[in-house]
Amino acid sequence: xAAPMLFKLVRDEDVSGVSGTxxxxxxxxxxxxxxxxxxxxxxxxxxxxxxxxxxxxVHGHNGSTRIVLVDPSGRLxxxxxxxxxxxxxxxxxxxxxxxxxxxxxxxxxxxxxTERDLNEAWDPRDDEIGxxx
Length: 133
Ligand SMILES: [Zn+2]
Hints:
By secondary structure, this protein is an alpha+beta fold. It contains 3 helices and 5 strands; from the N terminus they run ββββαβαα.
């Protein structure tokens, strides 16, 4: 089963005037898709949601708040590093990804090195496709 994933809510603009800006909450996305959200600040609270879509809907504020994956193990960085442009001797290159053979930057490299935006139709569970169960 997939492992829980950690994320932060980062607010660029304080629409509500309550939470302030910057990193305003820490979250866990559980393997079944449920979410636990812990608000920072003087009166912290914990909220549970059944789906990440509900977090986006309630807290997105039309793009002023972003979900940012926390990747303490550097997993995404390792994936991006593994999918690098193939290089032969003397600095020659085929222009392809040395790992998967797609034109570089390949889709996997782009995926692993792109910051997720709250308002994109991104579901972190999709990221687990292709991993061993
Ligand atoms: Zn690749």
